[in-house]
Write a structure and sequence with these properties.
- The complex is a heterodimer of chains A (116) and B (114).
- Chain A has 116 residues and is mostly beta strands.
- Chain A is built from no helices and twelve strands.
- Helices cover 0% and strands 53% of the residues of chain A.
- In chain A, strands 2, 5, 6, 10, 11 and 12 form a six-stranded mixed β-sheet that branches. Chain A has a four-stranded antiparallel β-sheet with strand order 3-9-8-7, with no helix packed on it.
- Chain B has no helices and eleven strands.
- In chain B, the strands form two sheets. In chain B, strands 2, 4, 5, 6, 9, 10 and 11 form a seven-stranded mixed β-sheet that branches. Chain B has a four-stranded antiparallel β-sheet with strand order 1-3-8-7, with no helix packed on it.
- The chains are: A mainly beta (116), B mainly beta (114).
- At the A-B interface, strand 10 and strand 11 of A face strand 4, strand 5 and strand 9 of B.
């Protein structure tokens, strides 16, 4: 079974600084997606960034980027120039691609606080 | 599209009562997921469907929980009888698997069993 581990229950960062959230996963699959979702206090789940396992290039979305280390099964999220609106729970997620039985599994989350 | 729609947004019920949570996925999506979120356990996958067929229900905590997807545009999660430990936020998400896969979430249903 696939598992996703986020080892940092809580983190804090000063506004405008950079922070990295860690995620590791366990799988024997070779074809899968990895995601980071953000959940602000509004409770809405919002996709931050996505990485396809077959792509070697790390995904980036504006201030958000990932460090995808496939051999190490590591998928960290870097937030640059942190903003107050980045305060939220961040969830790492794994989805295997298996033609009709894709399963999306989440880690327990990291609570990020951006301080002014 | 209005996104994934869940109802109700909030539900307060007494222990022993039946509770039904509803979800309308995004039109055209072929997979649907039900999650339960609590502080202690995070986001737990309860069950997921592909093309309306339940694929994996190993996350359903016990027989009191059941889920159905009678058609591509509607799913229900039922708890009968409900217990206080079922209190949580329940999310439904849908996706179209393939290129650019992304799971879209509903707003969640906050269930309180007293």
């Amino acid at each position: 079974a696939q598992t996703v581990t986020q080892s940092q229950p809580e983190m804090s960062v000063q506004e405008a600084e950079t922070v990295t959230l860690s995620c590791t996963y366990d799988t024997s699959e070779s074809n899968y997606y990895l995601f980071w979702y953000k959940q602000p206090p509004s409770r809405q789940m919002i996709l931050v960034i996505r990485q396809e396992a077959y792509k070697q290039q790390n995904a980036t979305e504006n201030r958000f980027s990932v460090n995808f280390q496939k051999a190490a099964k590591s998928f960290s999220l870097k937030i640059s120039d942190s903003q107050l609106g980045d305060t939220a729970m961040y969830f790492c997620a794994f989805m295997k691609l298996q033609g009709g039985s894709e399963k999306l599994v989440f880690g327990k989350g990291t609570k990020l606080t951006v301080n002014p | 599209d209005a996104g994934v729609i869940q109802s109700p947004r909030h539900e307060v019920t007494e222990m022993g009562q039946e509770v039904t949570l509803r979800c309308k996925p995004i039109s055209g999506h072929n997979s649907l997921f039900w999650y339960r979120q609590t502080m202690m356990r995070g986001l737990e996958l309860l069950i997921y469907f592909n093309n309306n067929v339940p694929i994996d229900d190993s996350g359903m905590p016990e027989d009191r929980f059941s889920a159905k997807m009678p058609n591509a545009s509607f799913s229900t999660l039922k708890i009968q009888p409900s217990e206080p430990r079922d209190s949580a936020v329940y999310f439904c998400a849908s996706t179209l698997t393939g290129l650019n896969t992304e799971a879209f979430f509903g707003q969640g249903t906050r269930l309180t069993v007293v």
